[in-house]
Amino acid sequence: MKPSLFVLTMFAAPMALAVEAEHAETVTHWYSDPTTNTAFAAMVIFLLVAARMGAFKVITSGLDNRATGIQNQINEAKSLREEAAKLMADAKTKAREAEAAAQDIIKRAKADAATMMKQAQADLEAKVARREAQAEQRIARAESEATSDVRSAAADAATQAARDILSDSENSDSLFSKALKEIDGRLN
Predict the structure, then answer these.
(1) Rounded to whole angstroms, how far apart are CA atoms 64 and 59?
(2) Is 181 within 8 Å of 148 (Cβ atoms)?
(3) N or C: the chain end with fewer CB closer than 10 Å?
(4) Which strand (E) or helix (H) includes residue 20?
(5) Are 179 and 161 in contact (CB under 8 A)?
(6) 3-class state of residue 68 by DSSP
(7) E runs forming strands in 104-159
């Protein structure tokens, strides 16, 4: 124990036990009171015996051990705080990386969607073009069939007319050749 604390204790104890002037009939000073002096002497002897037996060493070593324990707890708390700060920094870094990855995925998804839209538009245009070509082919085939049907009907009608004319008239050979030439000219 430090000497200044010991000296302070020795001088403070007698003053604490002194009788106050208000309650006492005669004023006595703390240093002249026999009870106070006896108590002070007993305390000094007790402290000397305790010091000689090593009580102060036990007390100080206990306090030192406790201080060491507290310091270890403080150091452990600091290391835990540093570890928590490191984990927090790692978590923030991972969060930033995840955000960047999410943005990248969104960009790729938008690009893929745009490509798919372009492809779908091209496929639709190709399908429409195929349908138009098929419709044009059907129209051409229908026109061809209609032309063929008209020619066939015209040929049948001409043949029938020629038969009717030949059966009714005497100039049938000349009329027949004339009609055949006229039909042939119109069909071609």
Answers:
(1) 8
(2) no
(3) C
(4) none
(5) yes
(6) helix
(7) none
- HSE-CB of 183 using CA atoms within 13 angstroms: 19
* Interatomic CA distance for residues 113 and 111, integer angstroms: 5
> Whole-angstrom Cα distance, residue 111 to residue 118?
11
Q: Are 18 and 33 in contact (CB under 8 A)?
A: yes
Q: How far is CA 184 from CA 100, 156, 159, 165, 171, in A?
A: 82, 13, 12, 18, 20
Give residue-wise pLDDT tens across range 92-111.
999 999 999 999 999 999 99
Contact between 17 and 35 under an 8 Å Cβ cutoff? The reply is yes
- Taking the model in full, what pTM does it have? 0.39
Query: Token pair 């209609």 is at which residue?
Result: 146
CA distance 185 to 188: 5
Tokens of 31: 């240093």
**Distance separating alpha carbons of residues 13 and 6, to the nearest angstrom:** 11
- CB within 8 A of 186, min separation 6: which ones? 154
CA proximity to 150, closest of 181, 176, 187: 187
Listed in sequence order, the residues at least 6 apart from 181 whose beta carbon sits closer than 8 Å to its beta carbon are none
pLDDT tens column, 59-70: 889 899 999 999
